[in-house]
Amino acid sequence: MPTRTARTAWDGGFEDGSGQVELTDSGLGTFEMSFKKRSSEDGGGATNPEELLGAAHSSCYTMQLTAILGQKGATPISIETVAKVTLGEDPDDQGFKIHKIALTVRGEVEGIDEAGFQEAAEAAKVSCPLSKALASVPEITLDATLETA
């Protein structure tokens, strides 16, 4: 499997500095970031590590779920996954930590019932590579719903 690369360039200090994160291998974009915008409620028009982590986790989880559904003989029609990443103070440290990741998945899938979908959704939560990498996050929740057309 390939190694993927992203790069961040930062100017200034923690609170007054800013930078750009680049999706190096794909070349799909360079995005602005700063702590001031990171800690604002609306994000200030810039990205942040938590949003990028949510994007990575939701995409990894979705791919893993479709693989597991296929192994069960089901046919995914559409899957939508949202990952909400909660950052907060680390009570054991002076810094911050990820306290929670809430995954919400909605799937339209042929050839599987609700129980089978729930089983696949839970299996994907445990087995996707990003979930494994994020094992130190105290709480990763899942809300999975099989939708019918």
Overall description:
The structure is a single chain. With 149 residues, the protein is α+β, with helices and mostly antiparallel strands. The protein folds into 2 domains: 7-45; 49-147, K homology (KH) domain (GMP Synthetase, Chain A, domain 3, 2-Layer Sandwich), CATH 3.30.300. The chain is built from 4 helices and 6 strands, in the order βββααββααβ. Strands 1-2-3 form a 3-stranded antiparallel sheet.
CATH H-tier superfamily of the largest domain: K homology (KH) domain
- How does the helix and strand content classify structurally? alpha+beta
* Mean pLDDT value: 94
Name the shape in a single word: elongated
How many separate domains? Answer: 2
In the predicted model, the low-confidence regions spanning at least 5 consecutive residues are none
Radius of gyration: 18 Å
Beta percentage is 35-45%
* Widest sheet, order of strands: 1-2-3
In total, how many beta strands? 6
Short account of what is shown:
The protein is built from four helices and six strands; from the N terminus they run E-E-E-H-H-E-E-H-H-E.
Question: Any chance you could write out the topology, listing elements then pairs?
Answer:
Elements: E1 7-11, E2 18-23, E3 29-33, H1 35-38, H2 49-71, E4 75-89, E5 96-110, H3 114-127, H4 129-133, E6 139-147
Parallel strand pairs: 5-6
Antiparallel strand pairs: 1-2, 2-3, 4-5
Helix pairs in contact: 2-3
Keywords summarizing the entry:
alpha+beta, GMP Synthetase, Chain A, domain 3, 6 strands
